[in-house]
Request: fold
Amino acid sequence: MELTILERLMLGSILPQQGDIVSLKIVQDLKLAVAFTEKEIADCEIDHKDDRITWNPEAEEYLKEIPIGPKAMTLIVGELEKRNEEKVLVADFISLYDKFMGE
Reply:
């Protein structure tokens, strides 16, 4: 699935920290997949300071293909559903939610 910089950040923020060993390995793989390479950091001018991540606005449309298997999809959808039910989603989640929930 193609994800923007913001969607990758948001996805990384909702991955569960606990679970069975299979889920944890899938989460580990997802975290590596959404992480930024040194080239992406340089090309998109990604910077982290004062607990904020910024990037060049011209890179807003930068997309990266992130492999999402069926178990990973189940984990992600479950986390999004949970956060939606708890009403803790913020506006930054809208495009990620739409991509994974098909709305």
In short: The longest helix spans residues 70-85. The longest strand covers residues 47-49. Residues 2-101 form one domain. The beta strands are 2-3, 47-49, 52-54, 64-65.
